Amino acid sequence: MFARTPRLLLRPGWPEDADALHHAINDEAIVRNLASAPWPYSRNDAEEFLSLPHNPKSPRWLIYRRTAGAPCLVGTCGIDVMPDGSVELGYWIGRDHWGLGYATEAGHAALETAKALGHRAIVASHFIDNPASGNVLLKLGFHRTGRSAPRFSKGRNKAVAALEFELSLESDMESNVARPLAA
Q1: pLDDT value at position 71?
Q2: In the chain, which residues have pLDDT < 50?
């Protein structure tokens, strides 16, 4: 499954992306903000990530910048169906590309895909010491649930407080716009 935005191409990862993925994520400042990535992050970790089975209801994408020269891997994003049945948005952007709006742009594409796949609501969270991720979620239309819960960070090897967000993907019949879930 592919998605295209004005500046980005979101596409599945392939084995030949291992070097680019390893180069982009091999930064402790990125990995410490992720739940499932280990630190240090090895090339073998990149290969393992790229070899994970593909689930059409839970697409994972590599995010490539497709403007300003040759395509460049800037991060990843995906939507995962969690064990409790909820659908979660996750993403990361490489440090060289922070502050350029790529997470928000890729997030919009992921939410549109989630909606097209028939998902009705989506959740997300960010570690409490990563407020920039919360700002991205707010720009995407998520709202704070008011809940915080410990979430294990493989990169930190410990549980860290995470703030929880949610978003309804069901459209108003008239406006066809995603809206926050009722509090």
Answers
A1: 86
A2: 172-183
Please list the alpha-helical segments (H only) found in 117-160. Answer: 131-139
| Three-class SS state of 127 | strand
pTM: 0.90
User: What values do phi and psi take at 181, rounded to 5?
Assistant: -70, 155
Strands (E), 29-170: 60-65, 72-81, 87-93, 121-127, 143-153, 158-168
For residue 43, what is the enclosing H or E element?
helix 43-50
Ramachandran angles phi, psi of 8, nearest 5°: -130, 155
Report the alpha-carbon distance of residue 25 to residue 42 in Å, rounded. 9
Measured over the CA atoms of residue 78, residue 17, residue 48 and residue 32, the dihedral's sign is negative
d(CA 35, CA 135) in angstroms, rounded, equals 18
* CA dist 148 → 54, 80, 91, 123 (Å): 30, 20, 19, 13
Distance (Å, whole) CA 13 – CA 135: 27
- Residue 178, exposed/middle/buried by CB under 10 A (0-12, 13-18, 19+)? buried
CA distances from 183 to 50, 128, 143, 166, 169 (A): 37, 21, 9, 10, 15
